[in-house]
């Protein structure tokens, strides 16, 4: 008799796992996926660019459609929601009926934080974490809103501010922190803030949203904690997301930061009862500190889906899992208009919380040789461990190339490289790409002097 | 009584060392630099872009002028050539008089390979390794040449072909190999070759230059080994360079590949007699194989100048040198028109020569998420060790970002990372920058399957 794997959630984590499992399990085994929506395997990270009109259709965001998955042998049930989990009996009740399973993979993703204030259910208030939500924002945009408020200034808030700018909308961002992108050092957020100001995007920093003004069930304004009232006929909610971990909670599993499901390196949450988790509903470990974090990102979800599949495969077929998830170094990248913004490793605030003894530097350089046309300013911030001299964190903001240069820093941090090692590292040099000392070189040399 | 350091050569390696030494040696010590030209500390790598008109003036290429160096306390003697070295007596004879020294740093760079065929001294035949040579080419361009032949298809040849294209010149490249950029795998060279063809640049592959046609002392054509004769009123020589290592040869020092000066990790060639070398005249070691190579690149020269200075400083003032040069991983980057081209680590040919048991893969992907506007093709080639599973070489060719992505691969190779480690590496992901599996991920996953 075969085994049945039930996967809840049909996006990155779930479908990566499902696709791997149908290929690798036996013919007698079953892979069932429950997805409450109608889409599968789409790039949620691409939603702001679709709303902005840069990506033409939401179909472009879909890597693999439900039909393609079904052709691959996945028993995919759309429009079905899990309603009850009996983890001891290994039975999941869904709106589509009861499903017993041998292994359950929770890949339910995360849901947008909705402010708990009056009027929050009015029309014209919409988050952007799914295709249907994107469709709703596009419907609102068809009504030609006069004033848009983007509530939140993290990655999605910043990307949506740019989207609104592209669409020629009068846009204001409200932010709980002084500058946008609180995951970054202030010197990075300040640059983004300057760019927002230069492009006439309003910005209310260090403010909390306290209420909505509405009329006839539609939003008309946003109230802030300093009594400011901003007119708004469209409010895009970008207060971040929280893991959808109800099933794990029902099973009595331990939850981590923001309620994310705690898993081992094989993405297993409960080996005895065959419960696994992957993607935005699960917690990740920082490779440097070992701390648990909630970092909803599509690339982690894909890797975790692959890891979970190999763990489930090994549990069913025997043997060691092919993959384990080693954790993350907190690499992020985004863009605001012409500004590229990236980070890896830990920030000053995180290092302080961890009690690490670090030094930090920031250096101003250019994107490539200063004499080569089009060179633009670029700032590199670097955090190093005073004792081990290891690089602990890097953040870059500036013109073209500022973003992807972070990959070399992420690799160096993963390898535990010291400042000294990086100074002599053989980075690529040619005038249209880099100065003779690359921006990372300049930063590690500055850190070396301080150490 | 102080020490005297004599440095021969006033570009990257020499002046980096001189600048560090005047700062760190005592007041009673002397730093004398002999430079046979009139320029110091300029970017030779920027010459093609100056000739192309992308960089306005050769002054832009100069990082620090002779006057600035003199203000810093360097005894700089321009227009002076070393004529005789008595290494045992520690006396260097120059066209500017005799100089005794305690330490001699040879930073004489490299000189262009000049074909030993008839007519090679005709007017209109010019290499491009120095500012005066660039000035000569600009003078030739003022005469509005009708047909230009670029002799050689390495980095400089390819860059000069692009420069000629920008200037609207009828251009033909001759190459000793089937495709341009022989340092790369054929699949990379092929892409460059296609781009040359698409832009009406003539290309004669697998050919040797056997002679020049001249008239009244001016070049009129180029003869190839298949009896082809190409009309040419300007021939740009780009057959590479050889180390200028005569001083080391006079001192009886061992020479390495192409006659490059062999040095230890402190850039010391002869500790007993106080002879050091840095930059394009010296050999470097490959960090993976330990093999000696001649890799004339400005970024190595800068690092080596810094290392040599710290070695000389320690020899004079006592103590351990602050720096050592760990060698290179053969990172290169260039551009041909819209194509970015980069490599790090070893090639198939080099791995074979070393007797390494490797597997290689090449994958076709896009510069960023395929659905995001402007995504262009990108090919990643990867070589991995069959036994250790370590990444040994990576080459990338394609649209924007293909170039600098190599820095992450160079870091991984330096750290000795395995294919398996890279699959789970936390590279930056956002649709305008990368797919959810970055191009390097895709390549290591393909290699993993093969292994």
TrEMBL record, chains A, B:
Gene3D superfamilies: FAD/NAD(P)-binding domain (3.50.50.60). The keyword Oxidoreductase applies. Keywords: FAD, Flavoprotein, Oxidoreductase, Redox-active center. This is Flavoprotein oxidoreductase. Residues 4-287 form the FAD/NAD(P)-binding domain. Residues 334-436 form the Pyridine nucleotide-disulphide oxidoreductase dimerisation domain. InterPro entries: FAD-bd_OxRdtase, FAD/NAD-bd_sf, FAD/NAD-binding_dom, FAD/NAD-linked_Rdtase_dimer_sf, Pyr_nucl-diS_OxRdtase_dimer. Signal peptide: none annotated. Its cofactor is FAD. Belongs to the class-III pyridine nucleotide-disulfide oxidoreductase family.
């Amino acid at each position: 008799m075969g085994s049945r794997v039930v996967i809840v959630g049909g996006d990155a984590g779930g479908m990566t796992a499902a696709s791997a499992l149908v290929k690798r399990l036996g013919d007698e085994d079953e892979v069932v996926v429950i997805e409450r929506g109608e889409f599968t395997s789409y790039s949620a990270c691409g939603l702001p660019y679709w709303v902005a009109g840069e990506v033409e259709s939401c179909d472009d965001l879909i890597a693999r459609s439900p039909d393609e998955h079904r052709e691959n042998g996945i028993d995919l049930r759309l429009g079905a929601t899990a309603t009850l989990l009996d983890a001891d009996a290994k039975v999941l009740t869904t709106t589509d009926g009861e499903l017993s399973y041998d292994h359950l993979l929770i890949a339910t993703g995360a849901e947008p934080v909705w402010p708990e204030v009056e009027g929050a259910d009015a029309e014209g208030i919409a988050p952007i974490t799914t295709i249907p939500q994107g469709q709703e924002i596009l419907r609102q945009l068809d009504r030609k809103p006069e004033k848009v408020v983007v509530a939140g200034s993290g990655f999605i808030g910043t990307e949506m501010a740019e989207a609104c700018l592209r669409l020629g909308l009068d846009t204001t961002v409200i932010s709980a922190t002084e500058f946008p992108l609180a995951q970054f050092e202030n010197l990075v957020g300040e640059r983004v803030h300057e760019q927002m100001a230069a492009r006439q995007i309003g910005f209310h920093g260090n403010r909390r949203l306290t209420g909505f003004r509405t009329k006839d069930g539609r939003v008309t304004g946003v109230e802030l904690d300093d009594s400011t009232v901003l007119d708004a006929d469209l409010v895009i909610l970008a207060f971040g997301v929280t893991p959808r971990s109800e099933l794990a909670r029902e099973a009595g599993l331990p939850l981590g930061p923001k309620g994310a499901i705690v898993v081992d390196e094989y993405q297993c949450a409960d080996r005895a009862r065959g419960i696994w988790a992957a993607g935005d509903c699960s917690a990740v470990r920082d490779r440097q500190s070992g701390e648990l974090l909630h970092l909803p990102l599509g690339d982690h979800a894909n890797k975790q889906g692959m890891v979970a599949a190999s763990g489930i495969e090994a549990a069913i077929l025997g043997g060691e899992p092919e993959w384990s998830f080693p954790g993350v170094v907190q690499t992020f990248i985004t863009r605001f208009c012409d500004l590229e913004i990236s980070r890896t490793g830990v920030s000053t605030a995180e290092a302080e919380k961890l009690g690490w003894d670090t030094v930090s530097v920031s250096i101003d350089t250019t994107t490539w040789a200063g004499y080569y046309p089009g060179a633009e300013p670029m700032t590199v911030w670097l955090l190093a461990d005073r004792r081990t001299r290891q690089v602990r964190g890097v953040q870059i903001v500036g013109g073209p190339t500022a973003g992807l240069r972070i990959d070399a820093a992420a690799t160096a941090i993963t390898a535990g490289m010291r400042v000294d090692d990086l100074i002599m590292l053989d980075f690529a040099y040619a005038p249209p790409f880099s100065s003779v000392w690359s921006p990372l070189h300049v930063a590690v040399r500055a850190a070396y002097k301080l150490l």
